[in-house]
Every structure is written in C-alpha cells, then in structure tokens.
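Appendix B, example 12.
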Amino acid sequence: MITGRLSTQPVPPLRYLSAADADACLPDVGTRVELAAAALRALGRGTAEMPPKIGVHPRPGALIHAMPAWLRDGDLVGLKWVAAYPDNKRRGLPAINGLVVLNDAETGLPTWIVEAGRITAVRTAAVSGVAIRLYTPDARQVTLLGAGVQARSHLEVIFALLPDAHVNLYDRHFERAGAAADDANSAAGREWVSAVNDARAAVGQAELVLTVASMGGVSQQMDSDWLTDGSVVVAVDFATYASAELARTARDFVVDDRGQFLFYRDGGSFDSYPEPTATLGEVLDAGEPVATSAAGDARPVLVTHLGVGLADVLFADAIVGRAAASGRGTELPR
C-alpha cells in the first residue's frame, strides 16, 4: 500500500507599509496614469472581478467601504477597506483613512498591508488623468472645483499632463482655495493656479472642469448652461456638481465602471441620470484619441468616476514591488 504525504510550502511573510513608506514608493505621475488605464481596460474587457462597493455608516455622514478586486490577467487580488469621516477635520484627523490588503491568489494568505490614504488620492487623480489624455490633452484653461486632498492630488496630475495650463481653483472656503493655490505655485516656482470666488464664472471659461468637492449637502448644481462649447467635465464628487441635465444632454456620458454606476444610481445617488454612453475602458480600447468637440458637436462631455477598487489593488501592487526592492516595510507576526 502506497501512502502519500502532504507537501508543505513556506508561509509567505506578512509585511506592513506605513503611509510614509507607501508615499516614498509611489511611481511617477505617468506610470500612475498607465496603472489607472490598465485597471479601466480590464474592467471594460471583463477580465477583472470587482463587485460594487459595500459599506456601513457608523455615524451620520460617515461611511466605511469594502472594495475587493481580482485582476485575472496577472492573478492579482486584494481589498481596500476605506473610511470617509468628514467630521474628522474638526478633530485634526484625516477625513479619509484606509488600508489595502494584498493576498496571495493561490492560497488566499494576506501578504501585504498598505496604508491607503495616499493611494486613494493619487489613484483617483490618475483616473482623471486618463480622461484628460483622452479628451483634453492640450487644454490650457482648467477649472478645479474643491480645494481639499483630491484637489492637491489633481493639481499634481494637471501639472504633469498639461504643462501649459492655467487653473482656476474654487472652494466655498476661499481661504482654503488660496492656500492650495499658493502651495501649488510655490512648488512649481511660477504662477499657474489662481484662487477664485465664483464657481460658475470660472467654469464658463474652461475647456476642462474637474469637480472634487466634498460630497453631501447641495447636489446637481451645474448644468450645461454653465459651460463653454465643447468643454469636458470630469466629476469625482458623484453628483455634487454635475447635474442629470448635463449628463442627459452631453455628447458623451462616460463612467469608470458601468455596473458600479448603475448600482449607485439605483440607490439614489444619481437621480434622473441616463444610462452611460460608454466606460473609460471601452473608450481606451476604441484605439483613437477622442477630440474635445467631435465633428463640430459643441455639446459637453461628462466623465464620472466613482473610484474602483481594482485601481487601488494595482497601485498597491506597484508600491509593494518598489518597497520590496528597496527593503522597506515591517514584517508582522502571523
């Protein structure tokens, strides 16, 4: 009688990357945009598994979301666990906190735990960067609505992708817009961002409008009457600014992930919005750059992206690859 013996394999180490380590291992802006594009293409092609975010709401206005994702090509799997607590600002704490956990796809064992606050900011701006490359690669007049964490990460992308652009930055707290503009100008060594106190006037001058305001309170403020002919709106703040009328009358209404958008629309976050024309991944796979105004069509384009966990996992994987190569990270006991 022959008896088999179960083979054992070494348990991989579990490592933790702090916010400082994760930030030090971020790739450059161009690589970030390519990572975001890879995630969007995979979603458009159906080569990834990513359910809509699920969440709990432990306090009024607060949420904690679970965002699992699996990239079949490359067999990469992980989850972002992210909390948004707007009232943390009054406590001197970050409003967005989170972790990304990467797992070994063969065994399911977690291998890395990465602080995700910075990942959340830069991967969101990188998805906007994909839209900028597709729709407004030569924009010179840009308006950014909102001057929080996302504004700062978006300014980094705008500076890299649109080096000749001037940005009008609006926030309902003018002093916050002024501080963000001062920081951006100081870092660049030149005046390229101006704080403004009239959102509609600033939008009306822009080829590209990015909305990154804090969600909650007012919603669907901006319709097509705000915009100049052929402009592109990239909405990061759900329907805080971009109205259903704008989505219905746009030449194209594009989202990052159709299933997730429809899930949120069914939940009431996008009241009266239409079906999307396409996803960013589908536009990328079309293989041709998209002109700002196609065939003389002066209607605006609206790109709405809600945040996809697959991008977080791809960003974390790129970060931990650099961390492992440089010996960063703390090994944790199992």
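The mean pLDDT is 93. The first helix runs from residue 19 to 24.
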